[in-house]
Design goal:
Length: 343
């Protein structure tokens, strides 16, 4: 039954996946000496040519260039959405919340840091008009948190941000944490309540591994960089357990130092991904873990929502790596250093 429902979409995803950049492409990007050179190189690639072909790379400022790269992700999402049936769109509707959270974080960051206003977010316009209840223009025009919260009236995000705004701690970190916790909670509920059989099984593995990776990373950062107490760490982590047991989470949160924490991490299901790194780059290890999970999912369940989930994950990783490459090139980092960031 799943073969019948997903055969066409799976073929579409395989064809689209063939347009993803290769490791050789990223090695080439790391050797370029300017952002215009990066854009000129991407113009030759099928997944970016249509978006970049009319642009003069010599006159694009950084924000415009990054926006165009992000737009390629949204273009792929929209293309897959149009090709999907109602059941597959149910998954994509839940997945889309990721992009709303990304947008809201950017707006909040601009407001609280009094940075450059996000007056131009053209990459979000078309996709948000089709898939989001967030009023894009009103949100972009907000210059205070009160204004943003008012603009979000009628959306699920108003209460999330209002709760933080009414609390005693309302720094950028607090707003971003609240949005992340809300996303994972809602996404997990969608997976468990709305997806059917094989789709649910596949996305549970992907979402569960992502939640575990986030919790491991947050606990590690809390211990290494901020010296947080166990009580503070419990408030940070996503209250969902997949392959991390409650006892393991407790032992990690209450570890006396980073060495003890890493010792507990090595006993978890994800311990093998920490091997060979001294000291471990935890974000890199967790990326490797999620890629391994996705590779297995795609091999075992190609005719399920896994084909959508894996492609969108890989495309998002690609977009982030390209933007990282542009930033590195812009600041004149040597190519070997850029390759380290792109690894």
């Amino acid at each position: 039954m799943s073969l019948f429902r997903y055969s066409g979409l799976s073929a579409k995803v395989r064809a689209t996946s063939g347009k993803l950049l290769t490791q050789e492409d990223f090695l080439r990007l790391s050797s370029l000496s300017s952002v215009p050179e990066v854009i000129a190189y991407l113009k030759k690639k099928p997944s970016y040519a249509a978006i970049l072909e009319k642009e003069d790379e010599r006159n694009l400022h950084r924000g415009q260039a990054e926006g165009l790269i992000m737009q390629s992700l949204f273009t792929d999402f929209a293309r897959l959405y149009r090709f999907s049936n109602l059941e597959q769109r149910q998954f994509l509707n839940g997945y889309f919340m990721r992009y709303e959270i990304t947008f809201l974080k950017a707006v909040i960051r601009s407001i609280l840091t009094r940075g450059e206003p996000l007056t131009d977010a053209e990459e979000y316009r078309e996709i948000f008009e089709r898939h989001s209840a967030i009023p894009l223009r009103q949100a972009l025009n907000a210059d205070t948190m009160e204004g943003l919260i008012a603009a979000l009236s009628g959306t699920v995000y108003r209460k999330v941000l209002s709760d933080v705004y009414g609390s005693s701690s309302r720094e950028l970190f607090d707003y971003e944490l609240a949005l992340d916790l809300f996303f994972f909670s809602e996404y997990w509920k969608m997976v468990k309540k709305e997806l059917k059989s094989e789709d649910q099984e596949a996305i549970t593995q992907s979402a569960g591994a992502e939640i575990d990776a986030v919790n491991l990373t947050w606990i590690y950062r809390a211990k290494k960089y901020y010296g947080m107490s166990a009580a503070q760490i419990y408030a940070l982590i996503v209250p969902i357990h997949y392959r991390l047991t409650r006892d393991q989470v407790k032992r990690m949160a209450e570890a006396a130092d980073v060495d003890e924490l890493l010792g507990v991490m090595e006993t978890t299901k994800y311990g093998r991904f920490l091997e060979g790194e001294e000291p471990p780059r935890l974000e890199h290890c967790m990326d490797a873990m999620q890629e391994a999970v996705h590779a297995v999912l795609l091999r075992r369940k190609p005719y399920s929502a896994a084909c959508l989930d894996v492609y969108l994950y890989r495309k998002e990783q690609e977009v982030h790596r390209i933007i990282t490459a542009m930033e590195c090139v812009r600041y004149g980092l040597p190519s070997d250093k850029i390759r380290e960031y792109l690894a």
